Amino acid sequence: MAQGTVQVTHTGTSRWRRRTGEYASLAAALEAAADGDVLTVAPGTYRENLVVQRAVTLRGPEGAQGSVRIAPADGVPLTVRASAVIQDLHVEGQDAAAPAVLVEDGTPELLGLRVVARSASGIEVRGGARPTVRRCTVDNPAGVGIAVLDGGGGVFEECEVVAAGQAGVAVRSGAHPRLERCRVHHAAGSGLTATGEGSALEAVGCEVYEVRGSGVQVTGRATAHLTDCDVHRTTGDGVTLDTDAVLTLADCRIHDIPENAVDLRSRSVLTLTRTTVRQFGRNGLSVWDPGTRVDANQCEIFDSTGDYPAVWVSDGATAVLDSCRVHDVPDALFVLDRGSRADVVDSDLSQVRNTAVSVSDGATAQLDDCRIRDAATGAWFRDHGSGGTLNNCTLDGNRTGVIVTKGADPTIERCTVDSPSEAGVYVSAGGRGSFLNCRVTGSAGYGFHVIDGCRTTLRKCRTERCARGGYEFADGGPDSAYDSGPLVEDCTSDESTGLTAPAAAPEPVVQTAAQSPGLLGSIPGQRTTEQEPLIAGTAPAEPARTSKAVLGELDALVGLDSVKREVRALTDMIEVGRRRQRAGLKAASVKRHLVFTGSPGTGKTTVARLYGEILASLGVLDKGHLVEVSRVDLVGEHIGSTAIRTQEAFQRAHGGVLFIDEAYALSPEDAGRDFGKEAIDTLVKLMEDQREAVVVIVAGYTAEMERFLSVNPGVASRFSRTITFGDYGPGELLRIVEQQADEHEYRLSPGTSEALTKYFTEIPKGPAFGNGRTARQTFEAMVERHASRVAQLPDPSTDDLTLLYPEDLPELP
Questions:
Q1: CA distance 43 to 3
Q2: Close Cβ partners of 50 (under 8 Å, ≥ 6 residues apart)
Q3: Residue 692: which residues within 8 A CB-CB, separation 6 or more?
Q4: How is residue 639 annotated by DSSP?
Q5: In this protein, which residues make up the domain named Carbohydrate-binding/sugar hydrolysis (predicted)?
Q6: What integer pLDDT is reported at residue 374 of this predicted model?
Q7: How far out from the chain centre does Cα 583 lie?
Q8: pLDDT at 784
Q9: Which residues of 782-801 are buried (b: 16+ CB within 10 A; e: fewer)?
Q10: 428: which residues sit within 8 A by CB, 6+ positions away?
Q11: Which residues on neighbouring strands pair with residue 391, listed in sequence order?
Q12: Over the chain (813 residues), what is each successive 10-residue block's mean pLDDT?
């Protein structure tokens, strides 16, 4: 039975109709009401299935939102078939086969409804209905949140789906709603989904998050247009398009996605404008199948959390990136399979851990006016049939600018490769390629390195300041064809600038491709394939400190008592050995290579630098400088490059210390065909061959380093001792902060030291804890908070400007 009564205010003019009335049930009130009447429902629970067929206003009492509950045992609690106004009702649906609110006709307004249901759908719009739905919430953990079907439409403003057992918002069968400033979250299916020919979804200023599926799914010839929307924290892909779907994203943000941020398949088309894609676990853009296409303009893709390329184009798909930025990712752009194509214009690819642009399996990439920076490989054309063009691009600070292998044949025009650490251009294994008006400057290796007799074309290219030589052409061996080797025209180099060969080295030999006289033309001083070591020019070395001065700096470091004892003992052994030799006595053999174990931030790099200086002051090493490398500096991406990288790192450390951080990464537990073993084998041989010229220190976590030393018996035998760096205690971390404060002219106020000690005692000491680095970061955070506080003072005193207080401490992580 109804709880309470219903008051109806009539606006009709018929004399026989009462102006007002009270009814015992909502059904009776609706039966008596005429168009324009206002039905004010008294608080209570109404177990009725309401059908609104006239243009009335049905509302709860003012100021008592949610006090009117429409909660029948089954069926549809509220059906609207007219241009009515339904306001401030609480609707509960219990029928899994029916919607809780059904809008079938007219242009009604639904205002402030709260729908709590276990129904097929929370709010369902069908057919010719065009409702305006404002500030309504739907909580339906058993079915769809909002469903718009069968040609239905309408506008949903500031609505929220707080839970859905299926899709948050589902559009199908030719429906076309518009969502404005809506929120959809905690759905068990997709957040927003549109499917079926003629179906169209428009969303402006909406947010989709915490869904167990795709954030947005458009399939089966449906279309969607999202503007200024956020999609994040999904368990599936952020956005999914399939089977001729069309989607436009403008000024949107897609982030915190564990899978693909955007995935397109089966002739779908996506247009992205001024949209950011970040923190994705697989691909930022994943584009598959012939006819599938993505056009991205002024977009940013960055901060990958996985190990996959940011943009993946395969199976004949097409991607266009115009004025985009891709950065802080494992790989930037992979284009695979015949028919696949990527066109990149005026875009930046930077901070790429592996390869910025990879083209393989017959695919094509066209890059115009692009900038590729800080990648292991700028562009890699991998195999037969793969090609394209790099036109007027700059490749700056990459390990290798361009790699061409296995029959790939790109055209590289008017490009500049600046400061590569390995080579400007590397061509091997039957790679071809045409390089026209290209320039390589400041290479730490070769400018152009073409091996295996590859038929590469170089025209009007130039190299400058390349450490190992401007051009290196290694032939393909005795079985190579007569006409193999590069074709070189009008290329120049200043490869001898700033470099001189050792006195004992033979005169440089000019080598021509395919042994054709005069082929290199104006390339000066071409080297043979067996490269003699190069030495730096005539810059005078800075005077070395004495061992006593360096040991004094070591003693001044906070903590590390056992480390200091170990280094002093080793230093004493070396010093006494030198004195015995001068006295004509035998000196004990001292292996100088060391293993440093311990957590990050415990001073391993600093001690390695000081150790090198000590050895130089004792005359054991020529220079004592430190060259720090890790796995990424030693392990190459193609066969043979690992040995080259390891040898080059060893050469840079000649006369000093080669410090390999996280050395255990060279032998991962699931190594398989990993090239790390090649780096270890090369390292072991070089440590033996050049044992008097380079000291090697390997460092990393204690347990991992024990495993590393057990992998190769030759590795463990090369190191004399292991030095363990213990974690800093709270008191030692406090001393580091005090040193930082003194250095930067700050002071700790009374009570701040105690607060810091408590802070360092309570701070989590997990794997990411940085020890001394954490102390320095804490000091920097205190200085920032101090600045924010003091900047508000109109006339700060000296104490105000220098004193750090406990409240300047950051929050514990």
A1: 8
A2: 26, 27, 30, 58, 70, 77, 78, 79
A3: none
A4: T
A5: 41-172, 313-474
A6: 96
A7: 61
A8: 85
A9: bbebbeeeeeeeeeeeeeee
A10: 404, 405, 450, 451, 452, 454, 638, 640
A11: 368, 413
A12: 53 44 87 92 94 95 86 96 96 96 97 97 96 98 97 98 97 97 97 97 98 96 98 96 97 97 96 98 96 97 95 97 97 95 98 95 96 96 94 96 94 97 90 96 93 92 93 60 76 60 31 32 32 34 62 71 72 74 67 78 80 80 82 69 78 86 72 65 77 82 76 69 80 83 86 86 68 78 85 85 86 75
What whole-number distance in Å separates Cα of residue 446 and Cα of residue 420?
A: 9
Tell me the longest C-alpha to C-alpha distance in the chain: 133
Which residues are within 8 A (CB) of 271 and not within 5 positions of it... i.e. 6 or more apart?
A: 247, 248, 249, 294, 295, 297
Distance CA 714, CA 601 (A): 29
Residue 155's closest CA among 205, 100, 230, 191?
205
| 8 Å CB contact between 78 and 100 | yes
The pair of three-digit structure tokens given for residue 438, joined into one six-digit string: 């290209």
Residues 43 and 66: beta-carbon distance below 8 Å: no
Instruction: Name the H helices within 456-528.
Output: none
Backbone φ and ψ for 219, nearest 5 degrees, come out as: -145, 170
**Residue 722 backbone zone (phi > 0: left; psi -120 to 50: alpha; other: beta):** beta
Q: Per the structure block, which two tokens stand in for 198?
A: 């003629």
Rg (CA), the chain: 36
DSSP 543: P
Burial class (CB within 10 angstroms; exposed 0-12, middle 13-18, buried 19+) of 250: middle
Q: Residue 589: CB partners within 8 Å, gap ≥ 6?
A: none
Give kind and range of the element (H or E) at residue 642: helix 641-652
Question: How far is the C-alpha of 282 from the C-alpha of 261, rounded, in Å?
Answer: 8
Closest CA to 540 of 440, 623, 631: 623
Length of the chain as a residue count: 813
CA atoms of 122 and 788, how far apart (whole Å)? 49
DSSP label of 544: P
Dihedral (Cα; 673, 676, 678, 684), 10-degree rounding: -150
- Paired strand residues for 296: 272, 321
What the block records as the tokens of 200 is 């169209």
Q: Record the tokens describing residue 573, joined without a space.
A: 């052994």
CB 585 within 8 A of CB 602: no
Confirm if 39 and 59 have CB atoms less than 8 A apart: yes
Four-residue CA torsion sign, 14, 15, 21, 24: negative
pLDDT at residue 523, as a whole number: 33
> 459, 491 in Cβ contact below 8 A?
yes
- CA 363 – CA 383 distance, rounded (Å): 9
Alpha helices in 539-640 (DSSP H): 547-556, 561-582, 604-617, 631-634
Which residue is listed with tokens 């869904």? Answer: 211
Cα distances from 545 to residues 344, 571, 624, 653, 696, in angstroms, run: 53, 15, 11, 19, 21
Question: Closest by alpha carbon to 184, among 136, 148, 120, 218?
Answer: 136
Helix H or strand E segment including 555: helix 547-556
| CA 414, chain centre distance (Å) | 30
Residue that has been written with the tokens 């991607």 in this structure = 319
Residue 725: the pLDDT is 79
Residues 72, 722: Cα–Cα separation, whole Å:
76
Amino acid of residue 44: G
Spatial neighbors of 582 by CB under 8 A, at least 6 apart, are: none
* H or E stretch covering 721: strand 721-725
